[in-house]
Amino acid sequence: MQHAPEKPEDGQVKQILYLTCSPRGRAGESSKLSRIIVDCLLEREPMTQVVERVIGGNALQHVDGDYALSQALAEDVSQEGSMIRSEELIRELESADYLVIGTPVHNFTVPSTLKAWLDHVVRVRRTFDVSRDGKIPLLHDRPVFVGVSSGGRISGTRTRQPDFLTPYLRAVLGIIGLQDMRFFSIEGTAAGPDATALAQRETGRAIREHFASLA
């Protein structure tokens, strides 16, 4: 993981938190797609620093028993194990001006590796609170870009499978205050290299058009 230096007090230097969770690493379609998003952000703001957090494979462990116990009680009783990792990941997110996520679709939804990251950062009394009226976000909003790859089609007129990934991410990140979300997807990769190459070109163009429209 690449660590960015501490942000200056004047706030001029921004940060991108870049999460990748493809089991194929940089060769994964979601990794390639999300990298285009990062590059477009850097073209707009060249001084922005990138903090890359690889969570694919076994890079991130799931929360442990002490963490789970802390969430059930009125205070965080554990300051060891996965609670330490949770705090580290939350602080990375708090420091980020942009969040970019590269993720494949696994069995209609997010991979377990991304779910593990979410379990660490969506934490009661830390990134959200609970009231009689429901959950209260504790983080300020920031732009979130999600690059998604799927073997089947999950959107449009040729949809062949349900999409639980998009609504789930909107819901779970919304709990902590992240609502400014934009999704880009490469779909139908199981149809072969030609279909994948076509999807890459179309989605890459859509990403660049999106950022060009912001100029």
List the helices and strands and how they pair.
Elements: E1 15-20, H1 29-44, E2 49-54, H2 65-72, H3 82-95, E3 98-104, H4 112-121, E4 128-131, E5 134-137, E6 144-150, H5 165-176, E7 181-187, H6 193-213
Parallel strand pairs: 1-2, 1-3, 3-6, 6-7
Antiparallel strand pairs: 4-5
SSE order, one letter for each helix or strand: EHEHHEHEEEHEH
- Average pLDDT, all residues: 88
State the helicity in percent bands: 25-40%
The largest sheet is: 5 strands, parallel
For the record, the CATH class is Alpha Beta
- Strand order within the widest beta sheet: 2-1-3-6-7
Poorly predicted runs of 5 or more residues: 1-9
Residue share in β-strands: 15-25%
Describe this structure in words.
- With 215 residues, the protein is of the alpha/beta class.
- The protein has a single domain (15-213), classed as Flavodoxin domain (Rossmann fold, 3-Layer(aba) Sandwich), CATH 3.40.50.360.
- It has helices at 29-44, 65-72, 82-95, 112-121, 165-176, 193-213, and strands at 15-20, 49-54, 98-104, 128-131, 134-137, 144-150, 181-187.
- A 5-stranded parallel β-sheet has the order 2-1-3-6-7, with helices on both faces.
- It is globular, with a radius of gyration of 18 Å.
- The two termini are 31 Å apart.
- Mean pLDDT is 88; it is low at 1-9.
List keywords for this structure.
two-stranded antiparallel sheet, 215 residues, Rossmann fold, 7 strands, globular, disordered N terminus, single chain, alpha/beta
Give a brief description.
The protein has 215 residues and is of the alpha/beta class. It has helices at residues 29-44, 65-72, 82-95, 112-121, 165-176, 193-213; strands at 15-20, 49-54, 98-104, 128-131, 134-137, 144-150, 181-187. It has a single domain (15-213), classed as Rossmann fold, CATH 3.40.50.
